[in-house]
Amino acid sequence: MSDMFELTGKVVVVTGSGRGLGKAIALGVGTAGASVVVCSRTLSEAQATSDEIAAAGSPSLAVQVDTGDRASCESLIAATVDHFGKLDVMVNNAGIDIIEPAEDVTEDAWDQVLNINLKGYFNCSQLAARQMITQGTGGSIVNNSSIAGRVGIAGLSAYAAAKGGVDQLTKVQAVEWAPKGIRVNAFAPGYFENVMSGATEEHRRPEKRSQVLAFTPMGRRGLPDELVGPVVFFASDASSYVTGAVLYVDGGYTAQ
Asked: How far is 161 from 170, CA to CA, in rounded Å?
């Protein structure tokens, strides 16, 4: 049974993996045996994560990338193939958040969030799929969505719109690429101990902390390592007949 979750021999790219949830995922897929491409807008963070993976015994490469920039994503795929010879799994994780009332969201803020959280996913997914099709090997694309793509959360108009888009992008690409042997799935985190860029101040408020615990049946935030299992599942043969799924990893938040 454990062989079903084995990633040995697979090359996995994890965007936004210099820190936070992405770092936990990158370390986790490395532990599962994958060769890991760590990428971030900050190369020093990506290199630090890559060094940890290598020290634990798995091959790793650090690449600087801005997923909202098409040319940067093209360079990421090229660097991956040049170094490892192929690409098997793309984990789209890079993201930012801007929390403010809908009436105050500026056009620039809207564009920034959608550019990274949705367009960036499209860029990397499309380019990864093209590489997988060229290889003739199939593969897996795993998207980091959010409970905000399903439920309304005040202050998250741009972020929620992007994540709702990620859910639908996941389903459409799953349908289109299934005949080519490419599976596309998403995991949707609830509230985790890691807080992404742009949300720190909001999550420091006592009222926000109380709200998170009150609306999460398990009564706590998730730990970054608790995302590793869902990602390994989607990346491995354990999910060989699963595509187009959105798995909520939220302590029961959306079950209510």
From this structure: 14
Q: Is 159 a catalytic residue?
A: yes
Cα dist from 103 to 110, 127, 156, 218, 226, whole Å: 12, 35, 11, 33, 35
- Contact in structure between 149 and 163 (CB atoms under 8 Å): yes
Q: DSSP class of residue 4?
A: G
Q: Is 243 helix (H, G, I), strand (E, B) or coil?
A: coil
- Give Cα separations from 183 to 28, 45, 77, 91, 201 (angstroms): 20, 29, 18, 12, 37
Closest CA to 94 of 157, 18, 168: 18
Cβ pair 189, 21 in contact under 8 A? yes
- How confident is the model over 146-189, as pLDDT tens digits? 999 999 999 999 999 999 999 999 999 999 999 999 999 999 99
Given the DSSP bridges, would you call strands 35-40 and 60-64 parallel, antiparallel or unpaired?
A: parallel
For 136, phi then psi, to 5°, come to 75, 20
Distance CA 174, CA 194 (A): 29
CB 27 within 8 A of CB 223: no
159, 191, 248, 253: the active-site residue = 159
Which pLDDT tens digit goes with each residue over 83-126? 999 999 999 999 999 999 999 999 999 999 999 999 999 999 99
Give the single-character DSSP code of 13.
Answer: E
112: closest CA among 197, 189, 20?
Answer: 197
Distance between CA atoms of residues 56 and 52, nearest Å: 6
Q: Is 218 left (phi over 0), alpha (psi -120 to 50) or beta?
A: alpha
CATH topology assigned to domain 2-248 = Rossmann fold (3.40.50)
